[in-house]
Amino acid sequence: MAHFDDYHRTVVGYHGTSISSALRIVNRVENFRQSERDYDWLGRGIYFWEYGPKQALNFARIRQRQAINKKHKTSGDLRRATEPLAVVACMIRLGFCLDLTEPENVEYLVAIFDSYRESMELAGAELPKNRHKYRKLDCAIFEYAYKVIEDSESNLTIDTARGIYVPRDGTTRIWPGSWISRDTHIQLCVRNPANLLGTWLHYPTGLGVKNVCEALQAGVADLKSEDSQSESEVEGDESAPEN
Questions:
Q1: What distance in Å separates the CA atoms of residue 220 and residue 152, rounded to the nearest whole number?
Q2: Which residues of the chain fall below pLDDT 70?
Q3: How far is residue 24's CA from residue 199's CA, in Å, rounded to a whole number?
Q4: How far is 169 from 187, CA to CA, in rounded Å?
Q5: pTM of the model
Q6: pLDDT at res. 235
Q7: Structure confidence by residue, pLDDT tens digits, 44-58
Q8: H helices then E strands: how many in the chain?
Q9: Sign of the alpha-carbon dihedral angle for 55, 102, 97, 7
Q10: Nearest-CA neighbor of 160 among 142, 144, 148?
Q11: H-type alpha helices, 70-208
Q12: Cα(61)–Cα(84) distance, rounded to whole angstroms?
């Protein structure tokens, strides 16, 4: 069985997005959107970088470049391609945490993988595959693990998952053979929004009231526009959680 402690300690996580989305979150106009993508490596939830504001901003820049390069842009894509970026900071209580720095939890996932593979074979289905950033196998196994754990423990809900991301590409190592790699970071997947204790705007700073109002109004207008589009057009929204 996985090893769970009720982590009463809190950490600060950072989430990169657009300025209008960030302001809607910190002003409680809307909540963080949970990622429902089938390739997020820790499963479905709200993703944060633990004590990593620059990582969050860098990822938001990557998402913005993707919007810029998209061929058939929606109104939301146009906004994401041009709108200033922001980083939201959040105080997070880890609670019941599937912490992958705990050796018991890593070994538990090995056993879960064996069980998942067996169930897929019995069903005559193929295992999902990990391809580059699309971690479909990882996501499927974590979702399977969450279900097994919560079904076996009547009053246990997994609040968060916590893992250390280390790039596989050897070119990220800071010198040949080094164990230190660029872009190594700790990532949090928050499955229970009640564990988000408070949010504030980390970047940019010094916004005036006029800037805030304009960004909020622009965001509301885009939300109305996006609501009228199909799910396929809205997929990949910058205001959605990123990892």
A1: 42
A2: 1-7, 208-211, 215-216, 218-243
A3: 11
A4: 18
A5: 0.82
A6: 33
A7: 999 999 999 999 999
A8: 7, 8
A9: negative
A10: 142
A11: 75-82, 103-122, 136-152
A12: 10
pLDDT of residue 8: 77
> Per DSSP, what are the bridge partners of residue 165?
185
Query: Measuring CA to CA, how many Å separate 105 from each of 144, 188, 218?
Result: 14, 15, 44
| Tokens found for residue 3 | 């090893």
Residue 46: both structure tokens together: 């709200």
User: How far apart are the C-alpha atoms of 69 and 57, rounded to whole Å?
Assistant: 19
pLDDT at residue 95, rounded to an integer: 93
pLDDT at residue number 209: 62
Helix (H) or strand (E) holding 172: none
* Angle at which helices 209-227 and 19-26 cross, to 10°: 100
> Three-state DSSP class for 195?
helix
Query: Domain ranges in the chain?
Result: 6-166+177-234
Look-up of token digits 């050897």: 170
* Max CA separation in the chain (angstroms): 60
